């Protein structure tokens, strides 16, 4: 039955921490999910593109006498539209073996470990476990670093192969190395890039300088990789040993995390919620994206970054559905979703100093050094910035939006980061504070997009050398008056300038 319903929209659309009010066009609820199910079923027999995977071990043949195949879920926390799980299931079906899925829960002792992030993660995994149960697949929640707990789990269960997904960040890369060292030598270890549309190693074998240098490489092969997904179906081979039951409520309550940074109301975790957000974007906001995406007061953004960051929804699925919808907003949105987003994975994968001033280009490091002694009318501590206690009401509003809603409007992110550079004693301190605030409060933090966003704003990553973008916000539209020319700053300040943070 068609009915009016409310859409979750830009975090800047209504009152802080409240679910924004936006009325949908009349359309049957869940139309997207039904359409997608039909698309997957139609592609049931499609071949798996082997360019999406690579072997991390010399052994490539499944271990004889194995009792199952394991998908070690890490970055991509979903069942459908997941190339890593698709490959693991096909491997298991070929050998007539049970399929297992595990996730290794690691909770660092850090102020970046917040209830906001881990609640989103665990509630998403609970949905994953429930869906796997209906498919006859065992889900295992392991506790501890993968190198410590996964190899023993593989041996204990006599699993014959391990498939995992891809992340370019140093900690997951170290986990891979730790697992690889301890896995039995006769177990093939396979990695599938299920996060990028064009696998990172296929897009480019080296660090790319800018979007203009990677765009052609991605677009050249995009049609090969931007395909529909086959269905992850009910698995016919049942494991003789079942997984330990997970008490999800107890898991969440027992987490040693910072609970002062709580859940957000607008962003509900899990693939179902992510697909509902995608549906609302296509129905309502996509048509506004091209013209109004740089207006923090407009409800014109997809709002999908938390679900993409946690792998609860596939960027490839988003691109497919937006492309089907078409319109003038499709091209600029796909440019951001594909080229710009995959450029961030490229940067983090090929530049090991992706979160350091030392990872910036030479010209940028020189520019930052030359201006390090510039007079600063205002200097703030990290604590003052975290509490939005500056003289700048627009900056305070952007910071409060991120703290209260777990999301800052994309247009304000550069302004926000550049002002931190202007108001701190050194570029290194500025970058450290920007990353800390983003990673602590943003639901899409601790992700390549966040690292590169801060590096771009503060260190000029992916800019032309002549642009000198790192010089304290001296860039068109990135000062206060420039923002006033682009959108109604007073309206944003009225809504978000914190009364008490």
UniProtKB/TrEMBL annotation:
Q: Which GO BP terms apply?
A: photoreactive repair; UV protection
Upper lineage ranks?
Eukaryota, Metazoa, Chordata, Craniata, Vertebrata
The record describes the protein's role as: Involved in repair of UV radiation-induced DNA damage. Catalyzes the light-dependent monomerization (300-600 nm) of cyclobutyl pyrimidine dimers (in cis-syn configuration), which are formed between adjacent bases on the same DNA strand upon exposure to ultraviolet radiation.
UniProt cofactor(s) = FAD
Flavoprotein keyword on record: yes
Q: List, alphabetically, the PANTHER family matched.
A: DEOXYRIBODIPYRIMIDINE PHOTO-LYASE, DEOXYRIBODIPYRIMIDINE PHOTOLYASE
Q: What terms describe the molecular function in GO for this protein?
A: deoxyribodipyrimidine photo-lyase activity; DNA binding
EC nos: 4.1.99.3
- Can you name this protein? Deoxyribodipyrimidine photo-lyase
Q: Which PROSITE patterns match?
A: DNA_PHOTOLYASES_2_1, DNA_PHOTOLYASES_2_2, PHR_CRY_ALPHA_BETA
What family is this? Belongs to the DNA photolyase class-2 family.
| Domain of life of the source | Eukaryota
Annotated region (Disordered), positions in chain: 1-26
Location of the Photolyase/cryptochrome alpha/beta domain:
67-200
Q: Which UniProt keywords apply?
A: Chromophore, DNA damage, DNA repair, DNA-binding, FAD, Flavoprotein, Lyase
């Amino acid at each position: 039955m068609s009915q009016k319903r409310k859409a979750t929209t830009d975090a800047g659309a209504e009152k802080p921490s409240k679910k924004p009010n936006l009325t949908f066009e009349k359309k049957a609820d869940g139309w997207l999910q039904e359409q997608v199910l039909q698309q997957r079923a139609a592609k049931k027999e499609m071949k798996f593109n082997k360019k999406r995977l690579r072997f991390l071990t010399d052994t490539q043949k499944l271990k004889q006498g194995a009792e199952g195949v394991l998908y070690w879920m890490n970055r991509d926390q979903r069942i459908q539209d997941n190339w890593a799980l698709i490959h693991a299931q096909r491997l298991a079906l070929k050998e007539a073996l049970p399929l297992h899925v595990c996730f290794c829960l690691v909770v660092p002792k850090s102020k970046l470990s917040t209830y906001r992030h881990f609640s989103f993660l665990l509630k998403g995994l609970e949905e994953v476990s429930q869906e796997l149960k209906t498919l006859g697949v065992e889900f295992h929640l392991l506790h501890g670093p993968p190198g410590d707990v996964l190899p023993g789990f593989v041996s204990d269960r006599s699993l014959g192969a391990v498939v995992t997904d891809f992340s370019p960040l140093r900690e997951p890369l170290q986990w891979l190395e730790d697992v690889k060292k301890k896995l039995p030598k006769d177990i093939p270890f396979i990695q599938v890039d299920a996060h990028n549309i064009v696998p990172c190693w296929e897009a480019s074998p080296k660090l790319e300088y800018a979007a203009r240098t990677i765009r052609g490489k991605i677009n050249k092969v995009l049609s090969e990789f931007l395909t529909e997904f086959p269905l992850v179906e009910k698995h016919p081979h049942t494991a003789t040993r079942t997984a330990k039951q997970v008490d999800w409520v107890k898991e969440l309550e027992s987490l040693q995390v910072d609970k002062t940074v709580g859940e957000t109301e607008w962003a509900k975790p899990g693939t179902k919620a992510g697909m509902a957000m995608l549906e609302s974007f296509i129905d309502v906001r996509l048509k506004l994206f091209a013209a109004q995406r740089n207006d923090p007061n407009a409800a014109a953004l997809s709002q999908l970054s938390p679900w993409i960051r946690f792998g609860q929804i596939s960027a490839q699925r988003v691109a497919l559905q937006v492309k089907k919808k078409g319109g003038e907003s499709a091209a600029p949105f796909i440019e951001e979703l594909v080229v710009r987003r995959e450029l961030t994975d490229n940067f983090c994968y090929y530049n090991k100093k992706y979160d350091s001033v030392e990872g910036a280009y030479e010209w940028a490091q020189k520019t930052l050094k030359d201006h390090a002694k510039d007079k600063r009318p205002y200097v703030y501590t990290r604590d003052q910035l975290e509490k939005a206690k500056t003289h700048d009401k627009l900056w305070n509003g952007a910071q409060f939006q991120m703290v209260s809603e777990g999301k800052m409007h994309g247009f304000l992110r550069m302004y926000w980061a550049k002002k931190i550079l202007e108001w701190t004693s050194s570029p290194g301190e500025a970058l450290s504070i920007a990353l800390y605030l983003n990673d602590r409060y943003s639901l899409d933090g601790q992700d390549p997009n966040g690292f590169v966003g801060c590096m771009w704003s503060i260190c000029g990553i992916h800019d032309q050398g002549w642009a000198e973008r790192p010089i304290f916000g001296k860039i068109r539209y990135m000062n206060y008056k420039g923002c006033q020319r682009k959108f109604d700053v007073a309206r944003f300040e009225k809504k978000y300038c914190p009364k008490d943070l």
